[in-house]
Design brief:
With 231 residues, the protein is of the alpha/beta class. The chain is 33% helix and 26% strand. The chain has 9 helices and 10 strands. The protein binds adenosine-5'-triphosphate. Belongs to the ABC transporter superfamily.
């Protein structure tokens, strides 16, 4: 289980996260929602070691992960799929996947078969350049690359952004498959309400850097959630 306690993060003098606490359990999707600029991406970056934070604790299965680098967080089992995907356009699909090896021991430098089972389209495209893929295929590649490390925690930042509906459905199916395996905690930051609402087992709504709602799906009415994440 990933536990975030009282996280505070600043950009210069601007306080962006103010005492954020949440838990993400293996076998569950924790959907973090809120309007633009409330701090969702900053929260994921702090967990992934991509942004320093001022105060607070992060633990994974009881082990402190405080103030790790991105490399350290990846080694600890945290995988991050950034908003905008950040795939390497001039590298092939296979090379993009292999870039996920960076934090693994040499003996683990192999693309696991289950990655291609999850994303069959990538199997036929290993030699294509990343930049030649459609937006949806690039998103699939970005998720596949994150899974190379066989993470305990998967952080997804707006995976449906700019993606056509049929691929959004496929991405939803992959998230469900990963969730149902039961060994991975998934934190999904998403502004596409219906997508997040369908997938979320736990809902965390943020406003101005604070958590304003944190409840299991069974205890949250759709309208209440919608009211928390609408402008
Ligand atoms: N590198 C940065 N330097 C200064 N301010 C930043 C930086 N990155 C983000 N911010 C500001 O921090 C606040 C939170 O941004 P963040 O991207 O975490 O929010 P968000 O909820 O993910 O929004 P969005 O859905 O638009 O991505 C915003 O006011 C944003 O302008």
């Amino acid at each position: 289980m990933l536990t975030i306690t009282d996280l505070t993060l600043k950009y210069g003098q601007s306080q962006i996260l103010n005492g954020v606490s949440l838990e993400a359990h293996p076998g569950q999707v924790t959907a973090v929602m809120g309007t633009n600029g409330v701090g969702k991406t900053s929260l994921l970056k702090a967990i992934a070691g991509r942004h320093t934070y001022a105060q607070g604790q992060i633990t994974l299965d009881g082990q402190p992960l405080d103030h790790l680098t991105a490399f350290g967080a990846a080694r600890a089992g945290i995988a991050y799929v950034p908003q905008g995907r950040e795939i390497f356009p001039m590298m092939t699909v296979l090379e993009n996947l292999q870039s996920g090896f960076a934090c693994l021991d040499k003996t683990d430098h192999k693309v696991p078969d289950h990655i291609y089972d999850l994303f069959p389209v990538l199997r036929d495209m290993t030699g294509r350049r990343g930049g030649d893929l459609s937006g949806g295929q690039q998103q699939q590649l970005a998720i596949a690359r994150a899974l190379i490390t066989q993470p305990k925690v998967l952080l997804l930042d707006e995976p449906t952004e700019g993606i056509q509906p049929n691929i959004i459905k496929q991405i939803g199916d992959v998230i469900r498959t990963l969730r149902d395996r039961g060994d991975m905690a998934i934190i999904l930051v998403e502004q596409f309400f219906d997508f997040a609402h369908e997938l979320g087992d736990q809902f965390v709504a943020m406003n101005r850097g604070e958590v304003v709602l944190n409840k299991p799906a069974s205890e949250v009415e759709r309208e209440l959630l919608l009211s928390h994440v609408s402008v």
